[in-house]
């Protein structure tokens, strides 16, 4: 017997979508497989690593812990939506590039979405605050120093933005 499907409306990176999903389809899987937005990565699938973080109505959430069908009507921003309006790198993405804030890049989408939301409320962070901001995201490559530098650089870029 095939699983019942639930019609779910999502606005993802400003684009409205209607998907038909089984009740247990994770938001992360819906974004990746139903919508082809493979920038959202799945690491632990248990809410620990932060790689799957997306913004739901502007707030960072772990898409491995959410069912897509429960998100009906939500506005979601993925790492793809953190780009600049002209399609180039957005300020947080540019900061990661400037400061070599990534190595393998697996964790990076979750950092970019987390930092994007955090800087809206902390536009002038200290280094200690920047460390705290990324305390819920795991990276097994970089040692975090360059990610902290990226948070501070992103704050600078946001201030310089027109
Ligand atoms: S994959 Fe969601 S927190 Fe690790
Ligand atoms: S850059 Fe490899 S896990 Fe963070």
Give a brief rundown of this model.
This protein is an alpha+beta fold. The chain has helices spanning 27-34, 91-98, 108-121, 127-133, 145-160, and strands at residues 5-12, 15-22, 53-56, 59-62, 74-77.
Quickly give the structural class.
alpha+beta
Biggest sheet, in brief? 5 strands, mixed
Give the percentage of residues in beta strands.
15-25%
Helices and strands, in order, run as EEHEEEHHHH
Name every ligand kind in the structure: FE2/S2 (inorganic) cluster
Mean pLDDT, to the nearest integer, reads 97
| Strands in their spatial order, largest beta sheet | 2-1-5-3-4
Q: Alpha-carbon distance between the termini?
A: 56 Å
- How many DSSP helices? 5
Write down the Rg. Answer: 16 Å
Share of helix, binned? 25-40%
Secondary structure layout plus pairing:
Layout: E1 5-12, E2 15-22, H1 27-34, E3 53-56, E4 59-62, E5 74-77, H2 91-98, H3 108-121, H4 127-133, H5 145-160
Parallel strand pairs: 1-5
Antiparallel strand pairs: 1-2, 3-4, 3-5
Helix pairs in contact: 2-5
The structure holds FE2/S2 (inorganic) cluster (2 copies).
């Amino acid at each position: 017997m095939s699983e019942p499907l639930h019609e779910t409306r999502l606005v993802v990176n400003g684009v409205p979508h209607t998907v038909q999903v089984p009740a247990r389809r994770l938001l992360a899987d819906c974004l990746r497989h139903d919508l082809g937005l493979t920038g959202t990565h799945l690491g632990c699938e248990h809410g620990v690593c932060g790689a799957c973080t997306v913004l739901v109505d502007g707030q960072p959430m772990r898409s491995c812990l959410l069912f897509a069908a429960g998100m009906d009507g939500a506005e979601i921003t993925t790492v793809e939506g953190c780009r600049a309006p002209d399609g180039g790198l957005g300020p947080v993405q540019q900061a990661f590039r400037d400061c070599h804030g990534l190595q393998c890049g697996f964790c990076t989408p979750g950092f970019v979405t987390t930092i994007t939301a955090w800087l809206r409320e902390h536009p002038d962070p200290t280094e200690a605050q920047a460390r705290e901001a990324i305390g819920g995201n795991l990276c097994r490559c970089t040692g975090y120093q360059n990610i902290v530098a990226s948070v501070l650089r992103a704050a600078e870029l946001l201030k310089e933005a027109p």
